[in-house]
Amino acid sequence: MAEQKESFFKSSFFIRTRSGIILVLIALALLLTGGNVLLAGLGIISLIGVFELYRVVQIHDKLLGWAGYLIAVVYYVHLYLAPDSRDQQVFLFILALILFLAVYVLSFPAYGSEQVMTAFFGLFYVPVMLSYIYQCRVLEGGAYLVWLVFLCSWGCDTCAYLAGITLGKHKMAPILSPKKSVEGGIGGVLGAVLLGALFGYVFRAQIPFSSPAFSCAVICGIGSVISMIGDLAASAIKRNHDVKDYGTLIPGHGGILDRFDSVIFTAPVIYYTVLYFIG
């Protein structure tokens, strides 16, 4: 009995479940607190995610990588000081590109062009896109609307898994992700739509939409499709570089990018669709 108990606590199911619970609790704490605590938390998560991506192309501990970390920090500091200065944010990334190219040419041939492009791409892929969670949170009704980001991404993932194991027959991306099916994808979208409608109905008094249930259903439907693209895109990068997981920070799940791959894509889409429905 003691050996069985010990083996259970060492099982992948228990480790994955424990990590998932801890991750959800951290997300709850950050989202419920909001404000600068959420912004700082996203900044730390973004730096870890950028590190994981840079490690794939082997620039995580080199000058090019450190330039990327610096720009990511500056971006979050700027978001704290002047969140509405979009033109300045664009200028910041123009300077970032110049900085990356300066490192590229002054240390040539230390880096390949693919590494430089990944360094620049990584800033948009992780820090900028994740920052839209914070930007959703500070909107009118954002304390409730920000949950749509996770509801449509993680909700879609769960519903797609359940639909896939029960109904899945046709492969969605047989080479890239053999376990994902068309039926699972459809189930994921429909599940996210239903979850969104239920969420909008339950919190209709706190959500600034004229038709909360309908609007949240549409938002989650759009977000769920985007979340699947984000999931597959992250998998494609790993496949191209023969990497199983981006990291080991979250036992049983992998790294930050393994767990937040769909959220990264979903956050900005939810932000702009929410703005549309707010009018």
Describe the overall structure:
It is a single chain. This protein is mainly α and 279 residues long. Helices cover 77% and strands 3% of the residues. The protein has helices spanning 2-9, 12-33, 35-56, 63-81, 86-106, 113-137, 142-145, 147-167, 182-202, 212-240, 256-278, and strands at 171-173, 177-181. The chain has a two-stranded antiparallel ribbon. A hairpin with a 3-residue loop joins strand 1 and strand 2. It starts with a helix and ends with a helix.
Largest sheet strand order: 1-2
Whole-Å distance between the termini? 61 Å
As a whole number of angstroms, the C-alpha radius of gyration is 20 Å
Question: How many separate helices?
Answer: 11
SSE order, one letter for each helix or strand = HHHHHHHHEEHHH
Return the structural class.
Answer: mainly alpha
Uncertain segments are none
Q: Helical content, roughly?
A: over 70%
Mean pLDDT: 88
Q: How much of the polypeptide forms β-strand, as a percent range?
A: under 5%
Shape: globular
Number of distinct beta strands: 2
Major sheet attributes: 2 strands, antiparallel
List the helices and strands and how they pair.
Layout (H helix, E strand, L loop, with lengths): L1 H8 L2 H22 L1 H22 L6 H19 L4 H21 L6 H25 L4 H4 L1 H21 L3 E3 L3 E5 H21 L9 H29 L15 H23 L1
Antiparallel strand pairs: 1-2
Helix pairs in contact: 3-4, 3-6, 4-5, 4-6, 5-6, 6-11, 8-9, 8-10, 8-11, 9-10, 10-11
Concise synopsis of the structure shown:
The chain contains 11 helices and 2 strands, in the order ααααααααββααα.
Question: Which structural traits does this protein have?
Answer:
two-stranded antiparallel ribbon; 11 helices; 77% helix; 279 residues; mainly alpha
